Amino acid sequence: MDVYLPIANLAVDGLVIVALGVATGILSGVFGVGGGFLTTPLLIFYGIPPTVAAASAATQVTGASVSGVFAHSRKQGVDYQMGGVTVAGGMVGALLGAVIFNLLRSAGQIDVVINVLYVVMLGTIGGLMARESLESLRHPAGKTSQRPAKRRHHPMIASLPYRWRFYRSGLYISPLGPLILGVVVGILTMLMGVGGGFFMVPAMLYILGMSAKVVVGTSLFNILFITMLVTMVHAFTTRAVDIVLAGLLLVGSVTGAQLGTKIASFAKPEHLRLVLATIVLAIALRMAFNLGVRPDEVYTVVPL
């Protein structure tokens, strides 16, 4: 089923794009990540220009997050107070990211920067996830002599002033930590078209020390509002959002998020993390390979 994308200025198979959306939605429901960190590189592999892929993926992540937030909210798995703080920081980060995006685009370096960021981020995260998953499989719960580590926030977070109580997360920390985390995620979302969950979920667990039962839902809550803002900023500034592409992705992602929530309820977490780590590392290697290979078209013409 061929569909023409007006902003990307090419025809694609609509069913393939919908399938990518389903895969992204499943990741959203299982891991609490928006899935854009995989959608954007996969769209680039398919032939979508990186700027259009990043801007449109952020739009699609919004749809996946809506479905995921409702699913986790029914299980009391969202800390709305913590989510409000990270969203406030994310709004500032998104505006800063828009300035950086336009500067790099005017310099003609935005495509290279997007690809390099993905190689670094996916390679690092995939490696850490793979190591953690293999350790979990090698030492199953109940068969290891190590005592489980206590959940606590990073000493740097403990040193920040103006502490608040985040009751659902079980924390008494400064809101400045989540606020700064939100700013970083907002910048990444603007530049890479990601929801930022792949960065936010481990940061909430290991830096903020949040309870694991609310991390996924709170991450999706933050992703929902930040990707909405990023979509609007992209639409008015970079004009790189392809509404047809985003619509096809949304059709698949909303359905996939519900499937992912069901999968997460019975699948073993270490097996899921290992599968995701393998996919992430494979994509990072492919993007690194593409950066060092001479492209088929050395010169391109881009309308001003």
From TrEMBL:
Topology of the protein relative to the lipid bilayer: Multi-pass membrane protein
Domain of life: Bacteria
GO cellular component, one term: plasma membrane
Transmembrane segments annotated in the record for this chain: 15-45, 52-71, 83-105, 112-130, 179-207, 214-237, 243-260, 272-289
Family matches, as InterPro entries: TM_pro_TauE-like (IPR002781), TSUP/Inactive_protease-like (IPR051598)
Keywords attached to this entry: Cell membrane, Membrane, Transmembrane, Transmembrane helix
Localization per Swiss-Prot or TrEMBL: Cell membrane; Membrane
Pfam families: TauE
Protein family (similarity comment): Belongs to the 4-toluene sulfonate uptake permease (TSUP) (TC 2.A.102) family.
PANTHER family from the UniProt entry: MEMBRANE TRANSPORTER PROTEIN MJ0441-RELATED (PTHR43701), MEMBRANE TRANSPORTER PROTEIN YTNM-RELATED (PTHR43701:SF12)
Protein name (Swiss-Prot/TrEMBL): Probable membrane transporter protein
Source organism of this protein record: Aurantiacibacter rhizosphaerae
